[in-house]
Structures are given as C-alpha cells and as structure tokens.
Amino acid sequence: MVDYREHTQTIEIPKGTGTRGFLRAIEEILKLDRVQGINIDARGQVSYTRYVREDDGDMDVARLQFETLMPYAVVRNGRIDEIVTGLRETPALVVARMFAEVSKQKLYPLAFVTGANTTLFDWLWGAGLEIANKDEFFGLPVHRDRLVDDYVLIIAAAYGRGANFTDTQQSFKIVMPQRTTDNALSTRQGDHQGKNPPGGDPRAVSQVGVPGRGANGTPPRNSGGGNPSGGGSAAE
What we know:
The protein starts with a strand and ends in a 61-residue tail after the last strand. The longest helix has 14 residues, at 91-104. It is elongated, with a radius of gyration of 21 Å. Helix content is 17%, strand content 23%. By secondary structure, it is an alpha+beta fold. The protein has helices at 18-29, 71-76, 91-104, 120-126; strands at residues 5-12, 35-40, 45-52, 79-82, 108-115, 136-137, 140-145, 152-158, 170-175. It folds into two domains: 5-69, 2-Layer Sandwich (Alpha-Beta Plaits); 70-236, no CATH class.
C-alpha cells in the first residue's frame, strides 16, 4: 500500500501580473493530483495543500512562466508608437495627447506602464499636481516594471472596452521631461539642481524605452544613448 503525506506549497505571484497571474497559478495547481485546498492571501501568495507520495515534491514554479504576464512583456508583444513631446508642454496636455492617439486608432485605454522608480509623480509635482494614490492615474491602473525606463510612460490599449491588460494590442509611449527652476532636465536619479543624471540626458533613450524592442531589435543602451527626440515608432 502506498503511503501518502500531506504537503503544502506556497507560490508568490509577481507584482504586475495582476489577476492573470493568480489565475495561471490556480490553473496549474488544479492539474495536480489529490489537491485538497487552495488559499489566496492579501500578500499576493497562493498556497495549496495536497497528498503526495514520498517521491513527489513541489510544483516546478518555473513552468508557470509568469514573465509572459509582466507589463514589459505585454507591451512588447504589441505595437509601440512614440509620441514626441516638447519641453514646454504640460503633463495634462501630454497625457491628453496620449488619450487622443488611443481614440484616433479606435482603441480603448487599459493601463499605464512605467518604471519601478518612475519619475511620473515628480513630473506631475513639478507642474503643481500631487497624486495621493500612486496606483492609479487618470482612472487607469499604473503597472510598474523594472525593465521599463523610469522616465518612460506608456499607455496600453486594446480593441475592447472591457479587455484585460494582457489583451493589449497597441501602446503609445512618451519620455517624461523633468523641469527644474533653471529650465534644465533632471530625473529622480539626478541631483534636481539642473544636472542630468549619470548616463546622459534622460530624453536620449532607445526608440521604445522597453528592453529588446528598439527599431533595430537591439536592447537599449544603459548609457542613455539614442535619438535625442526619444526615437520613433517601434513598428517602423
């Protein structure tokens, strides 16, 4: 007779994968034999309990492939177009242009994507606007990803009004200038005294601002090189 023992494993769902991350984990758990219970907690973890034989072990979490659900991967799977902005344009005007481009393409906005240490809220604060809830912007969720440049803001859009973020078809990207009192650009990485951060002008970025999806298919350079205007469409 085969002896079984109770076994519990906890899977941490990466931030930024949203509901799809939890659903993917639960779907894989349900494929296992002798599952007795599944629990989801407020810390973004999914735990399950099942009876296993002595030679059974933990689920191979790598097979869940959470990377395909991360914000940078979602926007890279679609088309990304550049919106070139001027230094004198206010954040409200720039964001309005982003929404206008979405509408022009007969799409619906889903979410904003930016860097893990985004300069978005510094940019807004410099224009006299302070945002209390940094998880939303203009009514849309803000997804952060360390593989997106901190001074890049992307709006993701799809053909359906109620589409999920992972259904993103096309995105529009801007480079956020940070204006100081002496009219120079700076970012959170700079000294906020009018000097650019190490690595060059924050507007001198790759053509997409998302690793591995430049116009020539090469990753952006960490030195901040590239077209000073922020590049063009990734689909060109």
